[in-house]
Amino acid sequence: MAYVVTDTCVKDFVCVAECSTAAIAPAMGDPAAATVAQVYINPDECIDCGNCAAICPQGAIFTSDELPAAKAEFADKNRAYFN
Ligand code: SF4
Asked: What is the mean pLDDT of residues 22-34?
């Protein structure tokens, strides 16, 4: 399992600093931050701590197991960002 960021992310970067393993990117100030629509979680680095989902003011983060069907594509989108 891993946490997945979805399209209601407003790129406020609140979750980035809360991540236990620095699995969320890009960070505020990263050149890539200006070009992406949202932040992404690296599923290979996520340890399922849940800090990000708990703090996200948009409710944009789900576990892969609880990802709504309409947002299923975001599991691949999060992984693809790091490939
Ligand atoms: S806390 Fe939520 S809205 Fe803010 S960057 Fe993270 S996923 Fe996006």
From this structure: 97
Q: Which residues form ligand 1's pocket by a CB distance below 6 Å?
A: 5, 9-15, 38-39, 56, 58, 60-61
In which domain, by residue range, is 35 found? Answer: 3-81
pTM for this one? 0.95
Closest C-alpha among 52, 44, 55 to residue 83: 44
Number of domains in the chain: 1
Cα of 58 from ligand 1 centre, angstroms: 7
Q: Using the mean position of ligand 1's atoms as its centre, give its distance from the Cα of residue 79 in Å.
A: 17
For the domain that residue 53 is a member of, what is the CATH number? 3.30.70.20
